[in-house]
Amino acid sequence: MKPRKRTGALALVALILLAVCIWAGGTSPIFSRTAASAAGAYDFTVEQYTVEMNVHTDRTVSVREEIRVSFSGYDSHGIIRDFATDGGVTYSDITAECDHADFSPHFETEDGFLSYYLRGDGVVTGQERTYTLHYTLTVPALAEEGYLPLDVIGYGWQTALNNVSALVTLPAQADYQIYAGGYGTSFPSDSGSGSTISFAVDRLLPGQGVTVDLSFEAGVLTTAFDFDLLIMILVSVVVVAVCFVLKKVLCRQPQLVLTVNLTAPEEMDPLRMGRLIDNSIDSEDVGALVFWAAAEEYLTIDLTEDADDPTLIRTQKPVPQELPAHLRTFLANLFVSGDVVRVSSLKENFYTAVEVMKTQVKAADGSFYDKKGTISAVVCTLAAVLLGLGALLLSYARIPVFLITPILPMAAAFVASFVVSRLMTYRRHKIGKSARFFGMLGGLVLGCILALIGFLMTSPALSHWVFVAVGFGCACLGCIAGASVVRNKKYNEKLGHILGFKQFITVTEKDRIAFMLKDDPELFYRILPYAQVLGVTDEWTEKFKGLDVPAPHYVRGNFAGDLFTVMVWSSMFRSLNASMSRTFVSRPSRSGGGGRFGGGFGGGFGGGGGRGC
């Protein structure tokens, strides 16, 4: 390369590097935006830091801190004392004083820390102020008996600490090790044994601190009695008991009289019966309509070409106008493209008709339940809200800072228990007593498991167990609220007829079934769709085992004479019904997603750090 060209290339590279440097200098890294924007505005230096700790046998520590600070930041108003709240540590009786009149401290919670803003309204640039703090630290018991690590000087200070001194007074003789320096220092700077520990450090750099590891003899340390936990447990028990009694009083069900029917009551179709039995329209209820329509001679089912994807063929039987609206909607949309339709062609197209059918059925039958159940459920919900707010207010009374995150596990516990309990209550007449019992129990257990998320919630004033206890109470209230339903008179009468019909399906003797087959050869196929929505398909099929039952008239297929049995058809029915059910309710797929993450730092019990503000 010629010298002139080489010089030009170097100049170009230099310009690019200069542009990058200018851009980098004017653009803060995303992870240090706060620190960069505050650089110079809140600069301060701790000129003297004195700590006095009195350790008590119940793992509470009385602390006094005196911090003398000089301010050099052009917008300095004071400092922020950050208290670490991880590991189950709690604080109480926090007070602060300043040697200047312009002083109005307040609390905030930030990134897992309790932040105490020691500041006033005016700018304090060039001033020197002394802050005196008093507080009580409560430390949870650790697995190793007698072990108590304390961050006497926290590792979160964002400035140098000068003239640091500490005096730790113990309730009994203990072995100790002192670690000074950066977080994670593994070699002690001092060790010994005694009932008082004192040390002095000329200077600690930003991010450096001092940890004292204490090892007491077995039996010296106990656990402080948690009156807040006792209060919330008692309140939770009383609230749950009151709501349970209220539910028992308000939600007395009317007497259910079973009327045994040999046919579906009120000429009811499987879809409507499916909703009446459990207050929901399942996909299998929709699939059962195909076999009902076939038994009523509105269509035939051709399995010749593909038994897994049957062809539905419309017959010449007219659809009467007096037929319920949801049935006319079903038949009209089933054959909207012609008299012959493959089930697979309805995928992702038929679900709109299903939604219309659901609306029509609900409009025809109206509400099933009395308002008394709603009142009970609302009371339980309000009780859960008040229980959660009670815990938050108790925390606020100890340290005046608003907390939101502890509400999450309480709400999750209530909602999970409510949903499962309501589902089991609706399905009580479709499933067995044992299944309902274990379902309700499972919902309660799920709610309690979600309540355990309270262990992850940090509160500077209350232990994790307080929020867990309240979460358990919310789970119980959700279970009670979910079970708070009262059948109205009209629904109670219809349900009695349906359960009488179900009783016919399940308890009729085989000899009587054989006799009825003489007058109704297709009795098995006519009742089978109803047995499906009532959850007694196996019981109905078992009654025909060994009986001579011909193939249904509405099915075309390669049935090899004697090889066809009700057991074979029952298996085919299940498979076909499941396949068609999935097809009828299938919707076009949607996708999406996103996420974020964060982090922080921690140390021993107590400690924390400080910032300018």
TrEMBL record:
The chain crosses the membrane at residues 229-246, 375-397, 403-425, 437-458, 464-486. Residues 46-216 form the DUF2207 domain. It holds the Pfam family DUF2207. Keywords: Membrane, Transmembrane, Transmembrane helix. Residues 265-544 form the Predicted membrane protein YciQ-like C-terminal domain. This is DUF2207 domain-containing protein. It comes from Candidatus Gallimonas intestinigallinarum.
